[in-house]
Amino acid sequence: MRRPVVGIIGNMALLDQSYEVHAGGTMNSRAVADVAGCLPLLVPADPRLVSVPELLGACDGFLLTGGRPNVHPEEYGEAETPAHGAFDRCRDAITLPLIRACVERGQPFLGICRGFQEVNVAMGGTLHPEIRDLPGRMNHRMPPDGTIDEKFALRHPVRLTPGGVFARLFGADEVMTNSLHGQGIARPGKRIVIEGHAPDGTPEAVRVEGAAGFTLSVQWHPEWNAGADPVSRPLFEAFGEAARAWAGCAGAARLRA
């Protein structure tokens, strides 16, 4: 029996400061393969190379990964400033319509960090360019020094909505997470339900209300240590189950056709 295919959204990067590549962290692929039980497939997020309809047909679910470039503020009606940082307009052009199509079709996706922010923007929401500049907020960015283990270490609790989707999935109303982001949700998009907050009020876990499929997204990085972490494992396992369900329905539809 074939594994469901999960399209892992890639990021544009430079090797040796000149050679362009589409890249995806190996921890994303391992989480998809080893914990979700799916086939990881790196997607070159560039509308000159792929189209949303093609991706919807080729994949059973999508992992909207983190990435250094931010969603361009024009996508939520604001002007670009230095605080908004670097951008990847090609990724914007693929992921934002892809998210809306998945919501409409019931096709599953899991949003992580930038992917979490993309889901909010795709549904009509806005972003703060720099969380740490807001009064009363902590610095959520990746620590500049230390080992990779130290950079991805658990840093703060996330308080979940009691009885909500995330609380039921994790079996707790509060979980510990890492923190490696600069931006965050300012105004929630239409149908965006926030079910988790950091101690400073920063939104950390969302879902799309009324969506037929799996639409969970988190501001932290659950792909790190996904097989052993008590929060990451059930999240990726649930995503894998959703992808298997979609693959089964899609397969049955092809047989009927």
Describe this entry's structure for a reader.
- The chain is α/β, with parallel strands linked by helices.
- It has one domain: Rossmann fold (3-Layer(aba) Sandwich).
- Helices cover 30% and strands 21% of the residues.
- A 9-stranded mixed β-sheet has the order 4-1-5-6-13-12-11-8-9, with helices on both faces. The protein has a two-stranded antiparallel ribbon with strand order 2-3.
- A hairpin with a 3-residue loop joins β2 and β3.
- α2 packs across α3 and α3 packs across α4.
- The two termini are 20 Å apart.
Structure summarized in a few sentences:
This protein is an alpha/beta fold and 257 residues long.
CATH fold category name: Rossmann fold
Largest sheet: 9 strands, mixed
Shape: globular
Number of strands: 13
Global mean pLDDT: 93
- Quote the distance from N terminus to C terminus: 20 Å
CATH class: Alpha Beta
Write out the strand line-up for the largest beta sheet, numbering strands in chain order.
4-1-5-6-13-12-11-8-9
CATH superfamily caption = Class I glutamine amidotransferase (GATase) domain
Number of domains: 1
Reading the helices and strands in chain order gives EEEHEHEHEHEHEHEEEEEH
Strand content: 15-25%
Number of helices: 7
Which ranges are low-confidence, i.e. pLDDT below 50, for 5 or more consecutive residues? none
What would you report as the Rg, rounded to the nearest angstrom? 17 Å
Structural class: alpha/beta
Helix content: 25-40%
For the record, the CATH architecture stands as 3-Layer(aba) Sandwich
